[in-house]
Amino acid sequence: MANGNATSSTEAVRYDVTGMDCASCAAKIEKAARGVAGVRDVKVSIASQVMKLSVDDPGARLPAVEAAVTDLGYRLNRVGEVSDDDNDDRIPDLSHVTPAYKRALWIVVLLNVGYGIVEAAGSFVAGSQALQADSLDFIGDGLISFLGLMAVGWGLAARAKAALLQGVFLGLLGLGVVASTAYRIFVEHQPESLLMGGFAVVALAVNVAAAAVLLPHRKGDANVRAVWLFSRNDAIGNLMVVLAAGLVFWTGTQWPDLVVAFIIAGLFLQSAWLIIRDARSDLRDAKG
Question: For residue 238, which phi and psi values (nearest 5 degrees)?
């Protein structure tokens, strides 16, 4: 095909992406798509789980783009050309939305929010900032899962608005943990390490239970896949709290507890910033 002919067939295309849970995922997908000849203006949003790109001669290039991304372990569902009038409100394929799918998400919501409240109370009893941060992590994930459940079938603009709300919520949680932990720096208080470790071990068990509930659905849409990855990553956070409890017991100081609390808060704030940034960009695109 002649170059002029290929240029004249340039299209702006959008895909729903399944499997992203962090900025590094988005960066890997962008790099893979940009590596295909004729592809440019690639943008991947972790807020709405969408990839947009411009491509010359799409019939020839898009199969290579799809292969490059799926080889990384992500799944793509082509929505269509970005210029379509109904694109931003297009309802995705809901064939995977089964009663079992919804039931699994509801169980995850209840596990996360329920134990988050229990762990928040435990953080005050144990005097642990790391437990407090971890409890907010549970509550935050539970509410985000709830929004994800409500967002099944929504269009891009609605998903972006929900993601913006999630990002603001995470940011407020992170700032609250930072403020509370900073206060503890000036008010010396050694946490009860045994209570702290006990609550953290139960938290790990709850996360394993949530992951087990989602195991049959881990290849579902982006919302379910994201919740699965959140559960896996949260288990790592629980282990950090267990380690901090051991170090508090060993050193006889509060510093391991404070350090872990700051780390979790930092993850909160990073996630909030990235989600808010991408959600605002998606909203601009939806209005454009």
Answer: -60, -40
